[in-house]
Design a protein that fits this description.
Elements: E1 4-11, H1 15-23, H2 25-31, E2 37-44, E3 51-58, E4 62-74, E5 78-84, E6 89-99, E7 102-110, H3 115-140
């Protein structure tokens, strides 16, 4: 059993555009969170050593809050942060690379202790990526 989850998605927009959707709270809260998230609020100090708090209202499940700390930020290339998921603190690495005219994003989540959490994070992240894809597709038209 692996404690790692890796998800890859290609977005049809340049790297600087995609990176901006991860690095600005007002943008991040528009797409982050699972499909059932009715509200997402993000506060962030986007710098190495800075922190973030993300609160989501999830239909039928109540409020869910994540807190984390940025470890490494390389603009338009990489973001590394830890996130407190309650029972465990995990590390997330997000790598942005050119893919034709678009951007390939590889998100690696290390330290997930069990299949339930891995499946929950996978579903939520995939649904978040779908929301970001729709926003970016509308923006580049």
């Amino acid at each position: 059993m692996s404690n790692r989850l890796q998800l890859t998605r290609v977005f049809e927009a340049p790297r600087d555009v995609i990176f901006s959707w991860w690095s600005q709270a007002e943008k991040l809260q528009q797409w982050s969170g699972c499909r059932e998230a009715t509200r997402c609020q993000v506060e962030m100090d986007f710098r190495p050593g800075g922190g973030f708090t993300q609160s989501m209202q999830i239909a039928g499940a109540g409020e869910f809050t994540l807190r984390g700390t940025y470890e490494e930020i390389v603009p338009n290339e990489r973001i590394v942060y830890t996130v407190n998921l309650g029972p465990v603190v995990t590390r997330v690495t997000v790598v942005f690379s050119d893919h034709g005219a678009g951007t390939k994003v590889v998100l690696t989540h290390d330290g997930l202790p069990d299949d339930f959490l891995r499946k929950t994070i996978s579903q939520g992240t995939t649904e978040s990526f779908e929301k970001l894809d729709s926003i970016v597709a509308a923006e580049v038209r």
